[in-house]
Model the fold of this input.
Amino acid sequence: MTVRIAVITINSELHTCQRILKAGESLGHEVLLLDVLRFSIHTSEPFLRYRGEPLPHVSCGILRLGTQLQGLAIAIGKTLQSMSVPLLDNVVALETARDKFETLQILSKSGLPVPETELVRDLDQLAASLQRLGPLPVVIKPLHGSQGQGTILAESEMAAVSMMQSILFQSREFVLQKYISCQGIDTRVMVVDGQVVAAMQREAPPGDFRSNLARGGTSRAVEVSEGMSELALRATHELGLNCAGVDIVEGPDGLVILEVNGSPGLSGIEQATGVDVASLWISALESRIEEQTENKKRWDHV
Done:
């Protein structure tokens, strides 16, 4: 089966996009790396144009949601779905996963362990919020973000107030989160279609609490425990995702899910573990197409 795969991205030169391209081509498929900015969306056919021309037929797609132009990327993804183009992950699930607070709410309501977190926009409520979250320090992180960018640790109420004043001045939305003491170590668990396929332990650089590799953290491959694997699989399922990177820490009271990334990067996990996650994504897309074909056959016989 040879298919044409559309990868919707803000930057086709990113490592993950290039890995998808290489993996798809190695499996005999055509891969189109499509820049979000080159699209226009219409209310009538052709619903999607690329560089001014009707988008050529694509068999399936991967929507890479970054921190920029999320609204446009989501609209493109929803339009592809309305055209019956199967995606690696449903757009609504990806949209939910981009919202750190909504993600944690869903997981918490499902009985999964997450850090106590509050969304606060009023400085008058800050002191009460800090008190509810327990003893300082407290983590302040952007509502939408990745790679630890904008995430800071406030070790006093005065520092928290100062940081929040700066945040509000920029008209940005942040969440306050109880700090989980974990010695700057977390585990990124990669899930693909209901299976844990790879995991790496990340450690923050000296003087930092963020273990993100983009911030200078180090990583190594690990075998995850049954409990950690179950948490990663349940979190991915509760959010309606097929493929995700789930970040989990071992706190004083046990395992805690920090975040779920619906558009995880591949550089760190593939380098640390040697697992070809990109090819697993392509195989998952092949399964989506096969499922769609089988469903169509069943409907044709009704």
User: Anything to note?
Assistant: The first helix runs from residue 15 to 26.
